[in-house]
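Session log. Operator J.P. requested a structure for one protein chain; no other inputs attached. Running the standard single-chain path with token output.
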Amino acid sequence: MKENNWVGVDTHKNTIACYKDGKFKEFPTTQSGFKKALQWADNAKWAIEGAYCFGKPFAAYLIQNGCEVYEVNTLLTKTWRKIYAISNAKTDFGDAKVISLFADNAKLQKVSLNTVKLKEKLTARKLVVKQRTEIICSIKMLFNTRGLTLPFNDLTTLKSAKWLLEQEDSIIKNFANILKALNESIKIFDKEIEAELPQKAQKLTVLKGIKSLTAATIYTETKGKLISAKALASYAGIAPIDNSSGKKVRHRNNKTGNRILNSVFYQLSLHQSLWDEKGKAYFEKKLAEGKTKRHARKCLARQLINIVFKILNE
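Structure written below.
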């Protein structure tokens, strides 16, 4: 295959592996490493595997410096590696090379700086929610060890926050102040995420069970990975894996894939099986066919993959 002006990049936590025009080099994931990679590439287009994951800081750096950056699906890299007959074990060099060679003929999505920032806010919100959960558990444990009973089950409400702040105990009062600050941070993140949600992602909110936060999660996790509905189902860990042997045709659950998306579609199928008219009818149809509730929800999640894929591709 002919060489081109594409830099293929395979990203990792500590390094970025780059290939261009027969040259291969690795750089550290630091500002100094990013600068050296940009100088080494010499005005090229960038195709990055994991541009919204480990490659997110590097992709943002390139965009801010006026470069064209595209996201490469890991499934595409795997396919290209087979086409190019790289039959040995997976290597950084091999992945970066096939990305560089095949990028020009693939329909890749441009990496959006707004999407990078949106994912950063989702990640930050997730961290704050985790910290809030730890504080709430600490408060409940404190009351439990003292043999006291909390008058509230939900400590995220304004009423419970006010009550905790009125307590004379310094430990409880300090916990309450931290809890108040975390609640305020979550509200700020929610407003900003809703305001910055792209129009394409906003269309997802027409489905029952999807609000702005869920729509933002689906949008950022699927960005650059919408090859087909089947590929998306596989990426989300919804599609079953063939486990046949001889004449016996069997399938098993897919325990790999993107666990964030897998969790989102499970919750969505659970919500639709209870509250959406069409979702409930489909769920009951599968139960009537003799499937278990778990299997029926998996089938419903697979149908929701098709709907989401269609909306995001319009």
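Operator note: Residues 200-313 form one domain.
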